[in-house]
Amino acid sequence: MSRPSRSLSGSSKKSKTNIQGLRNIKLVLEYDGARFFGFQSQPRKRTIQGVLEKALSQLLNRKTKIKAASGRTDAGVHASFQVVNFYTDKEISTDKVIRGLNFYLPREIAVTQAVEVQPAFHARYSARFKTYEYRIWNHSIRSPLRASSFCHYPYPLDLKPMRQGAKMLTGKHDFKSFCNQAQAEKSSIRTIRKFQIIAHGHEILIRVEANGFLYRMVRNLVGTLLDLGRGKTTLKDLEKILLKKTRSAAGQAVEAQGLRLIDVTY
Amino acid sequence: MSRPSRSLSGSSKKSKTNIQGLRNIKLVLEYDGARFFGFQSQPRKRTIQGVLEKALSQLLNRKTKIKAASGRTDAGVHASFQVVNFYTDKEISTDKVIRGLNFYLPREIAVTQAVEVQPAFHARYSARFKTYEYRIWNHSIRSPLRASSFCHYPYPLDLKPMRQGAKMLTGKHDFKSFCNQAQAEKSSIRTIRKFQIIAHGHEILIRVEANGFLYRMVRNLVGTLLDLGRGKTTLKDLEKILLKKTRSAAGQAVEAQGLRLIDVTY
After folding, report:
1. Are residues B149 and B184 in the same domain?
2. How many domains does chain B have?
3. What is the rounded distance in angstroms from the CA atom of residue A149 to the CA atom of residue A29?
4. What is the predicted pLDDT for the residue at B12?
5. Is A224 helix (H, G, I), strand (E, B) or coil?
6. What is the pLDDT of residues A185-242, one digit of tens each?
7. Residue A221 structural domain
8. Is the pLDDT of residue A6 over 60?
9. CA–CA dist B18, B115 (Å, integer)
10. Chain A residue closest to B31 (CA)?
């Protein structure tokens, strides 16, 4: 959901007045999204942002909000590498930010890096590429030890058409067919730079790197590739799906727990 | 806790009368032990055995107990390969046993194999070797995505003395110093056949294969190796710990969630 086409200075009027003279701190987070209602704050719901801002406010001794996140992960989605930034006037070392936040945060979230960056850095608008990984346990029998971070797909898969499909989707395309809640006034054109399918025994890892992702895009892409792998659709169908530019054309979205944000490049 | 010194026919009198004419089914299980009070049945507690026997009884339409498990894992300990056996007179195919049990079992337990074996097969007494793996996240910052299956050890570790210690412990020894609740009348001599320490970045996997394990033995061994790796003790100390034959001599047991039973050889 990042909008990399916007310029680096594309922050709102409010922040421009706020950031004068403030330090801009970039954080890298890891989290287990299972018991959160996604990243973005929602009233009376436990979210990553809500829990993080509570810890920030405790550490800095005043109500502190984050300026941005590289992207908003959905309910149940994990991250081994999520980036956020916040402004503060406190003279606290980044080492103490890491240790202090990890003290206040629950075990499901950790801050793994903290670094002071230029005032113009914006975790979302400055992001050039993000990488998501989707994990599939492809075996007739479910795997309890993988239940929290893999999607169980019990049907045999042929990886060859899946890899051909991934190759077809790589590059600059209008991904409207893979977007839930597409908005007419917003562009649904994105560039996929890398789309890999890696098999380790019965574990299949699908990694996709793009300059931005539409809502539910990764899970819709993976669902569509699984239809190819199972032989329900062909590469010709995939071409049509892409051209139709309507969500109902593509395959079903896969479950949230298999998905994780694993990298953001600035 | 297996006693491989016993003969294959070492089952109790009760079972001998029970097994006449019955089929003996061996099952391989995978489970996430986090929300169980260990393997062994206990009144009013959720255990792997309790939940498995309930599913077996539902499938076979009569109260069915397992005869044995290769070993009883503690509360919180996982298994990617646990073996049990049970007797039945039902003419159900092993394929249907797998599918039926996986239907009745909760998502935290799965039956991955089922095979009909000789009447004398006993999951515990017939076991020749078992392998446990202990997983350590060796980084100053905890890892939320590894929290359920790794032990977080934040201090720097030198793997060299740990590997030397593991080598020293390999072979036939009296492991009384590594046994909680040692019983005077029972032998605490076991043979460790393989003791490996594998590092992948900050992940350290400790694998130990033995002809049997005493109560808490793996977790006590790992705790003692961590003392060596951190420089709290030396190889000379380890020699003394082994010779002292008293639990208080060795290092602290490590947490349960890092441990998993990964193989049993018959």
Report:
1. yes
2. 2
3. 17
4. 44
5. helix
6. 789 999 999 999 999 999 999 999 999 999 999 999 999 999 999 999 999 999 999 9
7. 129-265
8. no
9. 19
10. A144
Q: Residue B259: which H helix or E strand, with range? A: strand B259-265
In this complex, the residue of B110, B142, B149 whose CB is nearest that of residue A143 is B110
Q: Which CATH number covers residue A109?
A: 3.30.70.580
pLDDT < 50 regions, chain B: 1-17
Same domain (yes/no): A84, A155: no
Residue A18 has pLDDT above 60, yes or no: no
Return the percent helix, strand and coil in chain A, to nearest 5: 30, 25, 40
Residues B137 and B209 in one domain: yes
Select from A55, A85, A117 the last residue of a domain: A117
Task: Read off the tokens for A200.
Answer: 């380790």
Same domain for B112 and B137: no
Name the residue among A107, A141, A145 with its Cβ closest to that of B144: A107
Tens of pLDDT, residues A39-79: 999 999 999 999 999 999 999 999 999 999 999 999 999 99
One domain for residues A37 and A97 = yes
Report, in this order, helix, strand and coil percent for chain B, each rounded to 5: 30, 25, 40
The pLDDT score that the predictor gives to residue A248 is: 85
Annotated active-site positions of B, please?
A: 74
A133 in the same domain as A98: no
Cβ-based contacts of B108 with chain A (< 8 Å): 144, 147
Residue B228, in any domain of the structure: yes
Contact by Cβ (8 Å): A98, B141: yes
Mean pLDDT of A12-30: 74
> Distance, in angstroms, between A258 CA and closest chain B CA?
12
Nearest to B192 by CA among B208, B176, B178: B208
CATH for B178:
3.30.70.660
Name A248's Cβ contacts closer than 8 Å, sequence gap at least 6.
Answer: none
**pLDDT digit string, tens, across residues A136-170:** 999 999 999 999 999 999 999 999 999 999 999 99
